[in-house]
Input
Amino acid sequence: MQDFVTVTGMVLKTIPVGEYDRHLCILTKERGKITAYARGARRQNNRLLAAANPFCFGEFKLYESRNSYNLSEASISHYFEELRMDVEGAYYGMYFLELADYYTRENNDEREMLKLLFQSLKALCKKTLPRRLVRYVFEQKSMVVNGEFPGVPDDGRDYLEATVYTVDYVTASSIEKLYTFTLKEEVLNEYAAMMDGYRRRYIDRHFKSLEVLKELGMIL
Output
């Protein structure tokens, strides 16, 4: 008799396997980042077809074999279709998934990172929030959650008071209250430059989604 486990999480990436199957990388509340085998998920009309895609958030029913999890059922509550239908939004969202994949590990407590990812994708869907701002808040809070953010740089620069306040607010704020403000352009530009410097310093990976956004002229 197979033992089943149900986890709540989001699909970060998928890899085709064979002719009809997929391997899923899922960030879960209960077991950190896991990989699961979805048999037949690339077949038309397969019951796992819709769930075996990046951005899918919900409950996943799994059974464990000797070397891997296997996906049996899925109940998806959020597909983030608004992002899928928008080229810029889709690549920003894919960058968030890539960064979450970079930071998370199997069997770690990744509840805060999962919550941050979910709230940040929801923020990307809001037309009232600049996506640049959402991106840099997500980057900073990811570093905070993972214990890598050192605060405002001690580099002798006279940063704008509003920029310093923004950094301190994002550091201390709960994830639910992160995306409740906007910034003037000069403040956003200074905040962006600060986060770009920290990303280059602390994150040793190139992200394909960022490269595509640059090639399309959607970011500097």
In short: The radius of gyration is 19 Å. Residues 95 and 165 are 26 Å apart (CA to CA). The beta strands are 4-17, 21-28, 32-38, 57-64, 69-78. The mean pLDDT is 94.
